[in-house]
Amino acid sequence: MNKKIFVLAIASVVITGTASYYLAPKNESHAGTDPRIAYAEFEKKDVYEKVSASWDKALGKLNNSVSKSNLNAAVAAENDWIKIAGPDIDIKFINDLPSAEQKSFNQSLLEVRKATQIGDHLDVVLVNKNKDAVKIVWERKNGDTHVAEVVRDGMANWNISRQEDIK
User: For 79-90, how does the pLDDT look when each residue is reduced to its tens digit (9 = 90+)?
Assistant: First the structure.
């Protein structure tokens, strides 16, 4: 009889714990990390300012290298590009693509991000106004700037057209 009570008590604890896990509001333990909230809204102000300064430095290097590089129309016409924080690329760009394009773009994005090294800063993504080309830019730990260009072909496939480090 004591065994049955013990087994029932353990079972009720397990069931209650499992139910509370699945019924609890998501992100409860990670307040402020709702994936639908823009990065600037949940990051601490001082951290965001440091990250933003890193982006500005990297984009400045990219702009200065335009005349020295063949990087396809880099950021020469700044108004032709939409600046998006790397963590926001899903909510501000990818989610608006058709599902077939999302898969292709995500594969290219993952391939680009394989170039990150320990100590590299958070990336910023530049999307052109036609939404058929993207530049993923980040500052490396050593101060160099990494730039990758991903372009859409006529068949809704996204491909990496170039990656380089700018000294």
Answer: 689 999 999 999
